[in-house]
Amino acid sequence: MSSRIPLSIVDFSAFFDGERPADAFRRSVAMAQKAEQLGFSRVWYSEHHNSTSIASAVPALVIAHVAAQTSKIRLGAGGVMLPNHSPYIVAEQFGTLEEMYPGRIDLGLGRAPGTDRTTLARALRRPMNAAENFPSDIIELMHYLKGESLVPDVQAIPGRGTQVPLYVLGSSLYGAQLSAKLGLPYSFASHLFPPMLEQAVKVYRDNFEPSEVMSEPYVIAALNVTAADTEEEAHRIHEQMVRQHVTAMHFNGRVTSDGEVEQLLSSAAGAQYASMLDYYGVGTGEQVADYLQSFAEKAHADELMLLVKGPTTQSSNHSMELIAQAWGLDPEHTAGDPTTWRR
């Protein structure tokens, strides 16, 4: 079991009908506490805007809230959508977190807006071409965190000298090429965008350029999981979760009839939405562990990031327990930053 790669969690901070975001935050705290207890390496929170079911619009605040109620598990953004923000503000935010919770903070960086075009242009007030500055924004951010600001007479305080580890997030070849060029770790969003996983990881590994951050590449690959006491129960939950995902993607919170949902599920659009969850480990704890092992080999991953899917907090917690036991996670293990051991 000691040769198993680390397992981590991605948490969307979801809330459901009749709930408020506060309910999602309570669940996020409980999930991180459970993940810490079981020996998972880290929990990441993603930036979404104008969503009717996702509360993590400001990952830095969610991280601060969860970090105050956990003790050792690493917490991070998976990720901050950098084109939405000034690199200076991001350096201050995550520098503050690192000063508060030293050695526990990660910063994953994405290029997508994390929202619709109207929200991006009219509410966030960001230009449509802001993503074109993603590479230079990362470099500027890196320099703030090192204490070597590229802007004369301006330092990020807090932020300067914290060296918060950066991860490039992606679902295409662009992120793979960029993280390889910068010598940064790479995280692929295969839990929602599976098609280019293998090609992107190969591009990243083949083109990786050693940097002062890391001498070797490091890949995190994400996937969906549901474990239960029986295979039948796991597959029942899996079907429910796929149905929920397809409905949410198409109707975006609009009230629908059973007939509309069934029609969608049998359509080409429904099949396309369902295919977003192609990488999905389902079954007993041992069956999911076997799937994780084969997926890790397929993805050439150094770490797996799990989106634990279940209809209730209890079922998700039990899923985590079964997977942790089958994988052989060590509750005494304290996760580190891969950039510190790959220099």
TrEMBL record:
<dbReference type="InterPro" id="IPR050766">
    <property type="entry name" value="Bact_Lucif_Oxidored"/>
</dbReference>
<dbReference type="InterPro" id="IPR019949">
    <property type="entry name" value="CmoO-like"/>
</dbReference>
<feature type="domain" description="Luciferase-like">
    <location>
        <begin position="21"/>
        <end position="297"/>
    </location>
</feature>
<dbReference type="InterPro" id="IPR036661">
    <property type="entry name" value="Luciferase-like_sf"/>
</dbReference>
<dbReference type="InterPro" id="IPR011251">
    <property type="entry name" value="Luciferase-like_dom"/>
</dbReference>
<keyword id="KW-0503">Monooxygenase</keyword>
<keyword id="KW-0560">Oxidoreductase</keyword>
<dbReference type="GO" id="GO:0016705">
    <property type="term" value="F:oxidoreductase activity, acting on paired donors, with incorporation or reduction of molecular oxygen"/>
</dbReference>
<dbReference type="GO" id="GO:0005829">
    <property type="term" value="C:cytosol"/>
</dbReference>
<comment type="similarity">
    <text>To bacterial alkanal monooxygenase alpha and beta chains.</text>
</comment>
<dbReference type="Pfam" id="PF00296">
    <property type="entry name" value="Bac_luciferase"/>
</dbReference>
<protein>
    <submittedName>
        <fullName>Alkane 1-monooxygenase</fullName>
    </submittedName>
</protein>
<dbReference type="GO" id="GO:0004497">
    <property type="term" value="F:monooxygenase activity"/>
</dbReference>
